[in-house]
Structure formats: C-alpha cells, structure tokens
C-alpha cells in the first residue's frame, strides 16, 4: 500500500490499520516471531503470509457453522479486512492434551490427554506476563460480564469441536489453542464475536502419527524448520495453491 494509513495498534505478530469504511480495520500479518513474552525474537520469512491464509480459511469455515467472527475478507498476501471490535482483555485457552504451561504447572506429562477439554483465562498484559485469572477476577474487575464469559466458553468449545475434527481429518492433533474475543455494538446492545487470528502461532498442532510439532513450539524450543512446518499445515488443509513463492522466500 502506498497511501499513508493510520496505524491503530501494533502487536507482536500483527498491525491493525484504519479500515476503508467505518467499523472496519485492516489486519496486517508480520513475519516477526516472538516467544517468552517477546524475550526471544526473530523474523521468519513468509510467516505472515501463511498465517493470513490459514486464519482466513479457518475463520471463513467457522462463520459458515455459525461461529461469528471479525473476518470479512482477505485483501492480499498479508492483509485482511476485519470488523472493528472492542477487544475483551482476555486470552481464552482451550486445552485437550497436556502441553506447555499446564504440564509444568500441574506436573503433567506432556502429551497426556486431559480428562476433558479445559478452558483457561489469561489477562492480556505483556508487562505482567499474561497471568492466569479466574471467572471471579474477570467479573470483579469488569473485564467481562457473566453472560459474556458463558458466551466465550460456549464459542470456545464449538471452535474446539470444529477444529479438532478439521485437523484430525488431515492427520493433525489439536493439542490446545488460544483465541480472543471482542464486542460488537448494535445500539445499546453488544454481542461477543471471535477476533484476532487462528493459526500455527496460536495453536499447538502435532502430527497425529509421529507427534512432530507443526506449530510455534518449533520456534520456542529451537527445533528449526518453523516455516516448513507452518507450510505443511497449510498444505494439508489444501490452501497452498496460491503460495508457492513464499516457500522459496520470494515474498517480502
């Protein structure tokens, strides 16, 4: 884009710009990768392109099964048009298998199936390291109302059911994932919709046959082949057709 656009927000992996019409934003996917609250950083050529494409694919399908989200359409390799929402300051994590912080925190073996899908809430604050919070905290500090928490949990479980099936069909186990929600206002009334992105940056995805990691843990744990793994996820989902140049590092 040659025109100067007003930047609304810049996060670790995305930038939000003012959208072409009121109530819209442009979400730009960066190649920056961060881990451990941005203590570890790198630029992974083509990551933003792949995540844009995977997130478009998933959000479109979630919309079609009635999980309303902020995605309107993909604009180009790195950008999508989204609805402007008031972000709820929570990360909602759904876990199916023990991995990452829950394994450390509760002394579980990584890879151990959980008794059932578990939903956790984390308060979005980089300075505090996104601490885990309870529903008590959420309602006491007015981050979300009880009804909104119920809506987020119901949507999170629907997303989990759908994604577990989607990935399972292409030989991938959905270990866990993080999503965010936002409020859309219609007059005095607001409703909660899914926001942010769903990509290998925000999901733990393991090859169902080998348990090989196909997600951001490859970056966190210095396993290498990060872009190759993200590309493999896109390939299995059948959305690689437009992206051959990315793999060769040809897209900037």
TrEMBL record:
One annotated GO biological process: cobalamin biosynthetic process
Single GO MF annotation: phosphoribosylaminoimidazolesuccinocarboxamide synthase activity
Reactions it catalyzes: 5-amino-1-(5-phospho-D-ribosyl)imidazole-4-carboxylate + L-aspartate + ATP = (2S)-2-[5-amino-1-(5-phospho-beta-D-ribosyl)imidazole-4-carboxamido]succinate + ADP + phosphate + 2 H(+)
Gene Ontology cellular component list: cytosol
SUPFAM superfamilies (alphabetical): SAICAR synthase-like
EC numbers, comma separated: 6.3.2.6
Keywords: ATP-binding, Ligase, Nucleotide-binding, Purine biosynthesis
Pathway: Purine metabolism; IMP biosynthesis via de novo pathway; 5-amino-1-(5-phospho-D-ribosyl)imidazole-4-carboxamide from 5-amino-1-(5-phospho-D-ribosyl)imidazole-4-carboxylate: step 1/2
Entry annotated with the keyword Nucleotide-binding: yes
Keyword Secreted tagged: no
InterPro entries on file: SAICAR_synt/ADE2_N, SAICAR_synt_PurC, SAICAR_synth, SAICAR_synthetase, SAICAR_synthetase_CS
Enzyme class, broadest EC rank: ligase
Short name of any one Pfam family annotated for the protein: SAICAR_synt
Family affiliation: Belongs to the SAICAR synthetase family.
Name of this chain's protein: Phosphoribosylaminoimidazole-succinocarboxamide synthase
Organism: Caulobacter segnis (strain ATCC 21756 / DSM 7131 / JCM 7823 / NBRC 15250 / LMG 17158 / TK0059) (Mycoplana segnis)
């Amino acid at each position: 884009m040659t025109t100067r656009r007003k930047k609304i927000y810049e996060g670790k992996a995305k930038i939000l710009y003012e959208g072409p019409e009121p109530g819209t934003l442009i979400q730009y996917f960066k190649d920056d990768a961060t881990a451990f609250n941005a203590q570890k950083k790198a630029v992974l050529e083509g990551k933003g392109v792949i995540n844009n494409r995977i997130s478009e694919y998933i959000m479109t399908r979630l919309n079609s099964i009635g999980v309303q989200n902020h995605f309107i359409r993909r604009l180009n390799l790195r950008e999508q048009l989204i609805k402007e929402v008031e972000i709820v300051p929570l990360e909602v994590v759904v876990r199916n298998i023990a991995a990452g912080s829950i394994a450390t925190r509760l002394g579980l073996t990584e890879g151990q199936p959980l008794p059932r899908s578990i939903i956790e809430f984390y308060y979005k604050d980089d300075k505090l390291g996104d601490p885990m919070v309870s529903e008590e905290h959420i309602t006491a500090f007015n981050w979300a109302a009880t009804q909104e928490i119920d809506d987020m949990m119901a949507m999170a479980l629907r997303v989990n059911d759908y994604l577990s099936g989607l990935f399972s069909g292409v030989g991938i186990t959905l270990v866990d994932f993080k999503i965010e929600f936002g409020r859309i206002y219609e007059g005095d009334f607001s409703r909660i919709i899914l926001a942010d992105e769903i990509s290998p940056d925000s999901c733990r995805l393991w090859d169902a046959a080998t348990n090989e990691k196909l997600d951001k843990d490859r970056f966190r744990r210095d396993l290498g082949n990060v872009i190759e793994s993200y590309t493999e996820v896109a390939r299995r989902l059948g959305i690689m057709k437009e992206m051959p140049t990315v793999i060769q590092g040809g897209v900037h």
